[in-house]
Amino acid sequence: VPYQPSGPRQVANALALLRGRAGKTVDLGSGDGRLVVEAYKQGLRPAVGYELNPWLLCLSNYRAWKAGYRGKVSFLKKDLWKVNLSDCYNVIVFLAPSVKPPLAAKLLAELPDEARVVAGRFPFPSWTPTSTLGQGLEQVWAYDMKEVRRAAQR
Asked: Where are the transmembrane segments (predicted)?
């Protein structure tokens, strides 16, 4: 998936849909780390980014250091398909549409009912969002796993 940095409005919209939530927050394909750093800043802890690109991991760690969060947020070089997400309650996904169908199956299989998934740029095609915020390129969609599972059983 090509790297495309999130704009300030996209970041704000994504985190607005996670406001007031607790539990582990992860960004799958965390890029330059801006969403993870902002999540931590807003009280979502622990905050973890998974990214394969070593240059983006360096940039993420620099961004965390510059914000004063070195050692408080984590950026891990791990393949999102191989990470166990069963302890994640807030999942941020700014990935290409082609990745969404297989990722939807992984999230359904692994996430707890209380989890919320926030997708940026492209929605999950087979899921109905619980809420959405913004328009155009800044739009984000939130999906509560309990609702997604209930709809899938119908």
From this structure: none
CATH number for 44: 3.40.50.150
Parent domain of 79: 8-153
Structure tokens at 107: 């999230």
Place of tokens 């607790």: 22
Number of structural domains, the chain?
1
For 141, left (φ over 0), alpha (ψ -120 to 50), or beta? beta
Domain assignment present for residue 3? The answer is no
